[in-house]
């Protein structure tokens, strides 16, 4: 099996925007919080054989740092504070935080340490696993092949929708974590920038910088999960997470994720103050149409004009699903679509990995994600799920 004598991840900014946004909030509010995260393969793939190659790459990451040019780029965003950026410039990955092993063919990864440091491991590790796996299984695939397939999809897209008013369509690249490779992601996004007027940005700060795109991202499930143990009251954990985010970012980055403890539980906490303060909300599990209708009814019930708010859809989207949702909602509320694996790993005869890294503990205690899609629910402690369901008045069907 091929070993690499060069790093695949070459810059600290080759990561999802929400990781840096969350890291800054953790830096200011939760400097001494400790967390544990673990790798999960949701598919049938046997990935343990790649553990040594992955470890080689993780070891190479210890030399990554924010360059002066990257630092200056980050200072152009009004929501990044200088104190945090000074600290980030000195930040180095601590490879002792990551334990990787091959357990009977299964890839085991456990990451533990200060949250403000551990938070940056997830995206590069997932993208490394994905690239190592795909290059081993599909050595014949090149960026040109990926772009040629994209061109066919774009031709079909424009042909099918030539009579549709797409003036309000906005699409963002969310494809870093499970991309075929960095080269494929870069080539795909570059082609979209040149040929697809509806691309407004990328979640990848590095690609956004070099292609002069808008970096897009707010928060992930881990933000809400950690608050389950940070908050003195489990029932108020979502409220604390929402408040702390507003305290850090005010009017910036104000799209809230809804499905850490189900959409219904989220909306009960997303009161008039939060609904007015946040620009909108993000869908990441469950039926997107039902979710969108619930969101519209929520805003209307609170007397908020939905046309002043935004729904960001980001769950397993492709161009066909995007157009279907666009037709359903674009005249009723602002919509943005984050497309990931179906963009950066959509290549004929290639089956992408379904892999994640999830928080499992905060300050030594369990945390959970109770998704609107049962397959995405995750917790290592059954008793804690019971406590969470009781606190949020949910039936124990997870």
Give a written overview of the molecule:
- The strands form two sheets. This protein has a seven-stranded parallel sheet.
- It has 17 helices and twelve strands.
- It is of the alpha/beta class and 398 residues long.
- Helix 1 packs across helix 11 and helix 2 crosses helix 6.
- It has helices spanning 17-29, 51-60, 68-74, 82-90, 115-118, 122-137, 143-160, 182-195, 205-211, 221-230, 237-249, 263-269, 272-277, 288-301, 319-329, 341-344, 382-391; strands at residues 34-41, 98-103, 106-114, 171-173, 199-202, 214-215, 255-257, 280-283, 310-313, 334-339, 355-362, 365-366.
- The protein has two domains: 17-138 and 354-391, Alpha-Beta Barrel (nicotinate phosphoribosyltransferase); 143-344, nicotinate phosphoribosyltransferase (Alpha-Beta Barrel), CATH 3.20.140.
- It is 43% helix and 15% strand.
- The chain is globular, with a radius of gyration of 20 Å.
């Amino acid at each position: 099996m091929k070993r690499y004598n060069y790093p695949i991840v070459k810059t600290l900014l080759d990561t999802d925007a929400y990781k840096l946004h969350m890291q800054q909030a953790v830096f200011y509010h939760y400097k001494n919080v400790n967390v544990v995260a673990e790798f999960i393969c949701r598919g049938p793939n046997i990935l343990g054989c790649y553990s040594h190659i992955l470890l080689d790459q993780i070891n190479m990451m210890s030399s990554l740092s924010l360059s002066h040019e990257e630092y200056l780029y980050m200072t152009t965003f009004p929501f990044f504070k200088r104190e945090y950026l000074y600290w980030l410039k000195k930040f180095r990955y601590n490879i002792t935080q990551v334990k990787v092993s091959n357990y009977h063919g299964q890839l085991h990864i456990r990451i533990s340490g200060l949250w403000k440091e551990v938070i940056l491991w997830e995206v590069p590790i997932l993208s490394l696993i994905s690239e190592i796996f795909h290059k081993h299984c599909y050595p014949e695939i090149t960026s040109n092949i990926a772009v040629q397939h994209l061109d066919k999809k774009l031709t079909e897209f424009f042909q099918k929708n030539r009579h549709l008013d797409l003036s309000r369509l906005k699409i963002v690249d969310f494809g870093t974590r499970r991309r075929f490779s960095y080269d494929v992601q870069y080539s795909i996004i570059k082609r979209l920038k040149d040929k697809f007027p509806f691309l407004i940005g990328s979640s990848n700060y590095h690609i956004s910088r070099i292609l002069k795109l808008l970096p897009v991202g707010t928060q992930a499930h881990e933000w809400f999960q950690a608050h389950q143990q940070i908050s003195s009251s489990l029932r108020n954990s979502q409220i604390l997470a929402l408040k702390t985010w507003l305290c850090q970012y005010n009017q910036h980055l104000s799209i809230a994720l809804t499905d850490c403890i189900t959409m219904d539980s989220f909306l009960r906490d997303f009161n008039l103050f939060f609904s007015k303060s946040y620009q909108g909300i993000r869908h990441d599990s469950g039926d997107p149409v039902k979710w969108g209708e619930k969101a519209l009814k929520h805003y209307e019930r609170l007397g908020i004009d939905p046309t002043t708010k935004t729904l960001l859809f980001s769950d397993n989207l492709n161009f066909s699903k995007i157009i279907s949702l666009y037709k359903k909602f674009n005249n009723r509320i602002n919509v943005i679509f984050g497309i990931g694996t179906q963009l950066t790993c959509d290549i004929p005869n290639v089956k992408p990995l379904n892999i994640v890294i999830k928080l499992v503990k905060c300050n030594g205690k369990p945390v959970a994600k109770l998704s609107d899609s049962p397959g995405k629910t995750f917790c290592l402690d059954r008793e804690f799920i019971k406590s969470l369901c009781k606190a949020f008045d949910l039936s124990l069907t997870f």
